[in-house]
Amino acid sequence: MTQSPAHRRIIHVDMDAFFASVEQRDDPALRGRPLAVGDVGRRGVVAAASYEARRFGVRSAMPSVIALRKCPDLVFVPPRFDVYRAVSAQIHDIFSRFTPLIQPLSLDEAYLDVTHPLQPYPSATAIAQDIRDRIRAETGLTASAGISYNKFLAKLASDYRKPDGQFVITPRMGPDFVATLPVEQFHGIGPATAARMHALGIRTGLDLRQQPLSRLLRHFGKAADFYYGIARGIDERPVEVNRPRRSIGAERTFEVDIHDWAAALDVIMDLSTRVWNRCTARSLTGITVTIKVKYNDFRQIVRGRTALEPVRDATDLVDRAQGLLAPCFPPPRGIRLLGVTVSGLRARDALAAPRQLALFG
């Protein structure tokens, strides 16, 4: 029997300042101090910030030099992704004791459909509390949880009582809860889309709800149906178990801007090798290769090419990435970042077809 979306029970679990909290757990000297995980160099970026650092306005993806201006006492530690992955595996093992319907979003957050849990519980709220208690007991870390009848509202709810809290949005509460929020707080509406909505006089969930679907379609295309639904507290997306990986990529930010072709090609070769090694480890290849070029004024371009024939090996990936990079030279200004991504993923034993290229840029 199909479960009515209004009667689903979805939990969004989000670890609190995950990378930074792991570092503070493992080094008592870092506890209570403003901490950033990342590189402190001139081109360094904050990967994660502790709550002590966030009080000064330090945020992830912020350049390190700006973070230090905001918080001169900020302590930087290099990331330890092998440790974070191991802790994430512990956390996902805890999830699996409650439900098989788990959709990981990253190392530190996931959706769980607990409509039919593996063990009897009086409510989804009780399940969320038990999950958070077990995470604390087994990892020494805290998590926040949002509980609702769909994914959109569960994710909103998990932010509502952070850190180390949980919040429930019931079917009766959903539409009114959404109505009061600024659209920039909606998961799925980024800064650029929020600015477009503001220009149309749409600033809150209530403003969005008052828009005819035809107007949303005219301005937002295929995303209009999603916006129309979430403005009413409606989101019928299922929790996707074993959602396939969409892409594998790597990028590098430089301490000193790159201007010449030889230096850029060395980086492209290194990035392509790293990406191909990750593909090989997962027995994957892909048909689309994309490069990203970010200049020292933060303007960036993305160029990609899709082929019917998948990438064969590291050399093939280097050749495709190099071909995409060549038209960018000589660069109009210094390059501060290069990236390589493979997407359109498929198993390595997929049959190759004759190559046919389509360029987008």
Descriptive account of the structure:
Residues 10-190 form the UmuC domain. One of its GO terms (biological process) is SOS response. This protein has helices spanning 18-26, 51-54, 64-70, 81-96, 124-139, 151-160, 174-179, 191-199, 205-209, 213-220, 224-230, 261-281, 314-325; strands spanning 10-15, 35-38, 46-49, 75-77, 102-106, 109-113, 143-148, 166-168, 247-258, 284-295, 300-306, 335-347, 358-360. Residues 350-361 have low confidence and may be disordered. The longest helix has 21 residues, at 261-281. Among the domains are: 18-80, MutS, DNA mismatch repair protein, domain I, CATH 3.40.1170; 174-230, 5' to 3' exonuclease, C-terminal subdomain (DNA polymerase, domain 1); 247-360, DNA polymerase, Y-family, little finger domain (Dna Ligase, domain 1, 2-Layer Sandwich), CATH 3.30.1490. The protein has 361 residues and is of the alpha+beta class. 36% of the residues lie in helices and 23% in strands. The strands form 3 sheets. It has a 5-stranded mixed β-sheet with strand order 5-6-1-7-8. The protein is globular. It has 13 helices and 13 strands.
Question: What would a concise description of this structure say?
Answer:
Helix content is 36%, strand content 23%. The protein is α+β, with helices and mostly antiparallel strands and 361 residues long.
Secondary-structure element sequence?
Answer: EHEEHHEHEEHEHEHHHHHEHEEHEE
Mean pLDDT: 90
Task: Report the sheet-strand fraction.
Answer: 15-25%
Proportion of helical residues: 25-40%
Top-tier CATH class of the domain at 247-360: Alpha Beta
